[in-house]
Amino acid sequence: MKSRRQYSMKLWTQVNILVMVHNTCNLKVSPLLFLVSSQDWKARLKMPPPDTRYKTEDVTATKGNEFEDYFLKRELLMGIYEKGFERPSPIQEESIPIALTGSDILARAKNGTGKTAAFCVPALEKIDQDINVIQVVILVPTRELALQTSQVCKELGKHLNIQVMVTTGGTSLKDDIMRLYQPVHLLVGTPGRILDLAKKGVCVLKDCSMLVMDEADKLLSPEFQPSIEQLIRFLSPNRQILMFSATFPVTVKDFKDRYLQKPYVINLMDELTLKGITQFYAFVEERQKVHCLNTLFSKLQINQSIIFCNSVNRVELLAKKITELGYSCFYIHAKMLQDHRNRVFHDFRNGACRNLVCTDLFTRGIDIQAVNVVINFDFPKNSETYLHRVGRSGRFGHLGLAVNLITYEDRFNLYRIEQELGTEIKQIPPQIDQAIYCR
After folding, report:
1. pLDDT digit string (tens) for 87-104?
2. Do 60 and 36 sit in the same domain of this protein?
3. Of 134, 144, 167, 322, which sits 20 to 30 A from 403 (CA to CA)?
4. Structural domain tally of the chain?
């Protein structure tokens, strides 16, 4: 950490440089006056109360940088502080200055450590709000993540005159076309819909100089990769590509070699699972699962929980059972109407309900700070899915709990996932200390 004295000296040096510039133009300014006026803007911000919850090294092991060290626009700094961001997390420290230089980035960091701001901040900084063209495209794999990311961009850029648009499949194409006739600087969306609009000639991307791929491993799955490769052809030849994810399978290397120019590689994954998440398993028979879930609800201190099932059918059946047991419960899955999905996501995020049952649709990037418990009612088949599921709790260095209901058939999967992730999933004790997931 920098000492207060070092920071003061650095600030005083920056002020003196600015004063020298003013004074060479015969605008005589006192350094003290300049310092007071330059710091005054912070005092007027409407900042949320500081987050006093315990945080792990996943977000606290920083170099001690401040957001002001990156010489960002003051209006952007205002949005950053009013969003409640106090100082950059490790992934933000590594990514923001490199992204501002225009270099391509391949970044790997754990779920819930601040990846979204790591690309939103440089994207907003580099946009020229006086030029009414699409300058940044952020691609994400799901509609919910598109809505969440666009909201973060709007909140961080609320003091800038930057127009943010979100577009995804399952919504009105006509409305999107009409919106594109208005100024748009930053476009967030799913690859298929943006490609569709680009092919129709209404989404003009020739001036787009930055492409961000969030959850890049998912975007490079067979479902999305062909659309992304077509979409890149519509961008400026001098485009910058930023790729972020927690997991990078081999498909990423081939894409990197073909499309990224001397990328800066960031890897903050010395271990895969978040330090703040405690993981347990409970051996049960299939018919005992609902009873076991009921016991967990009665014994755990749940702020909000996400409960995962492996199929759409089981999601709906389990949500019905939980409601019958007398607990508040929503459910969400890919076969629901988009408007209904949006409403459930919005209401759960705003705390209207304590428990949410869902499929893996909801694993990618979804950030709900109040979630402190994840329950795998059905155990996932692979380690990547497991990693993304449990990463819904313990967001931004906070504590969380993951409980896995394991049947006889799941036992080999449990062992394999432990080995692949280099983590330990312990047998659940009769009593769980609240301090490990509620501080």
Report:
1. 898 899 999 999 999 999
2. no
3. 144
4. 3
